[in-house]
Amino acid sequence: MLIFDGEICVWTDGNVKDTSEVLFRNRYRSRHYIEDLMVSVVEKSHFGKYLVGINRSFDTIADIVYQKKDALDEQARVILKEVKLSG
Fold first, then answer.
1. In whole angstroms, what is the distance from residue 29 CA to residue 87 CA?
2. Residue 20 CA to chain centroid, in angstroms?
3. Which has fewest Cβ within 10 Å: 21, 33, 58, 68?
4. pTM for the structure as a whole
5. CB atoms < 10 A from the CB of 83, how many?
6. pLDDT per residue over 40-86, tens digit each?
7. How far apart are CA 66 and CA 75, in angstroms?
8. At 44, which helix (H) or strand (E)?
9. Using an 8 Å Cβ cutoff, are 7 and 18 in contact?
10. Close Cβ partners of 34 (under 8 Å, ≥ 6 residues apart)
């Protein structure tokens, strides 16, 4: 990923190409913690479209959870029952 004067570019197959969004993977490390972080880098002019996409993703996830609500509720009951038995 390259950022020149606010423009985002990617290096692909030996060529530099303009893009409006990049998903950047970063690894955070400390003595007790290792985590892969995904960071979106978005051009200012693309930010509105990016937010619309995030909202669509949230709506899709909410729809899936709602469709599977009964099964998820049952899983939660089983987990809580196991926690009470072991605790």
1. 33
2. 17
3. 33
4. 0.56
5. 9
6. 888 888 888 989 999 999 999 999 999 999 999 999 999 998 887 67
7. 14
8. none
9. yes
10. 27, 28
Nearest to 6 by CA among 23, 16, 19: 19
User: What pLDDT was estimated at residue 1?
Assistant: 57
pLDDT digits (tens, 9 = 90+) for 1-20: 556 667 888 888 889 988 88
Sequence-distant (6+) residues with CB within 8 A of 45 are 20
The candidate with the shortest Cα–Cα distance to 2, out of 43, 33, 34, is 43
> Could you give the angle at which helices 69-86 and 47-67 cross, rounded to 10 degrees?
70
Q: Cα dist. 45→37, 42, 54, 86 in Å?
A: 24, 8, 16, 54
